[in-house]
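Components:
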Amino acid sequence: MHRHEGHDACRTAAPDMVARAEAICRERGLQFTPLRREVLEAVAGSGKAQGAYDIAERLSAPGKRVAPVSVYRALDFLMEQGLVHRIASRNAFIPCGHDHAPGEGVIFLICRTCGGVDEASSADVEGGLERTLERAGFTPTHSILEVEGDCGACRERDHAP
Amino acid sequence: MHRHEGHDACRTAAPDMVARAEAICRERGLQFTPLRREVLEAVAGSGKAQGAYDIAERLSAPGKRVAPVSVYRALDFLMEQGLVHRIASRNAFIPCGHDHAPGEGVIFLICRTCGGVDEASSADVEGGLERTLERAGFTPTHSILEVEGDCGACRERDHAP
DNA sequence: CCAGCGGTGATACACTGTAACAAACCCGCG
DNA sequence: CGCGGGTTTGTTACAGTGTATCACCGCTGG
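Structure:
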């Protein structure tokens, strides 16, 4: 099991994300186009989960409009490559700064105060879930685990301002 | 820990759901209105997760239109009373046939073949999650755990038709 | 050259959810 | 009885989320 302390400490910076994405795409023979790069930067640039329409607006400038549909396509691509995650409970997207083991379950820790999203994983949780599913006769293909609450940083800040 | 075998076996039938809802509302001094009753029946009547607009359509008849917003309000009420759950990954709703311990985590098992949703819970998973959150310095307020896959019934049916 | 393919732009549309206000209903109180 | 206040519902409008479709562009391989 590994874990992460705070969402700031563990979040890979945007330039690193881009470099990693370039490497992955080159390795897999896929195109890391300017649009995809901009979308990834937009997602990685903010510390919080971004909606597709937020991203579209952020990438748009007077004279250069980026339609949400283009953002969705780029996000689909980035998700397939494991470079961003979708937060179902928020309809929003975050960059993924980790190399997840294939099939490894991710736990999203969503701070309701600062909006930051941290990723964690736990062999305990995963093992328990596996056993539970097996007992239920259920064969999983995909699972999401999202926790909303207060991250340590926000709790401290609010506690002793 | 308790568990459930299949989504058919564990799903409380619609009439029972209504009876239980009536009892709960009486006990809590709340109104179990015809609309709320119809919405609950609609959610409980189908074996699968229902969208709010599906419910609205199902409850509408020539001359009697039920607007989605009314369905949402009824669903909000029923969720507050713990009579239905929302499946975030599907934007859909299912009846809740269990008496959940307060604060008990629920695991939703969503069959991608038949669309049925089963509920499970696991002390292992819950404990592991608690420990993981504590180590991360994260104070949870709400968490969702949804697993997509194939339920036992569908797997058997497809395996030996 | 050109046929095909992936990516993008653009428009339209479907689906999901909420805000705001008015009307109906219920219930207790004077 | 009538009246006032809370809750529920109806209605309209709108915001937010996501997809389908077609056209165009640019590249690449025959």
